[in-house]
Amino acid sequence: MSVPLAPRPAGVARLRAACAAGMACVALATSSPCAAAADTPPGRVTFPSDALTVADARQATGRRVNLPLPDCAVWRSYCDELRLVNELDGFDLDPRVTVRLEAPPAEPATLDTLLGSDTFFLQPAGGTQRIALNRLVYDPDAATVYAHPARQLREATTYRIVYAGGGRTSTATFTTMSASAGL
Fold it and tell me: Taking the CA of residue 22 as centre, how many other CA atoms within 13 Å lie in the half-sphere pointing to its CB?
């Protein structure tokens, strides 16, 4: 006898695209703030972000991931995964950065301007050294760009994501996990 599975929560594809690479090894499949790039104001950094964490003095970084749980009576296994993720003290050392653009560019060449090394990069929160982003993927339907740092980030370090394309600058900070937390 087979038991039908309940459909996955809305936004699973977007969630996996925006979060899976940035949240350790767990493929998250529930609705969460990082899932909905389409629900984020244009020109905003959506993931990773310390807005998805809480202060926790027990953690090596002083932060702890705090993603909302779905209805755990319906999504039991997803809740179990999220509970594990919510024990981490930061984000992956090679996160998938997500930014929603103001609007889809009129021409593909415009992406080079919007996503150049002067307009889209990472840097340590207390420093000025820029870390380039590469492996860029553009989703025209969501006007969203996904990218990875050109090099692995240092553990237990807070970084600033800077996006200065489209005439407005948007920043968000995130903290990478300590090696003992999730590796």
Answer: 28
Polymer length in residues for the chain: 183
Q: What is the pTM of this model?
A: 0.72
Whole-angstrom distance, CA of residue 58 vs CA of residue 91: 16
What would the pLDDT profile of 110-156 be if each residue is shown by its tens digit? Answer: 777 778 888 889 999 999 999 999 999 888 888 888 999 999 999 99
And the tokens for 183?
């590796």
Q: Look at residues 113, 106, 151, 100 and name the one whose alpha carbon lies nearest to residue 129.
A: 151
SS3 content of the chain, % helix, strand, coil (to 5): 20, 25, 55
| Torsion sign (Cα): 54, 56, 61, 64 | negative
Question: What is the token pair recorded at 125?
Answer: 């929160």
The Cα 95–Cα 126 span in angstroms is 19
Contact indicator for 80, 132 with CB cutoff of 8 Å = no
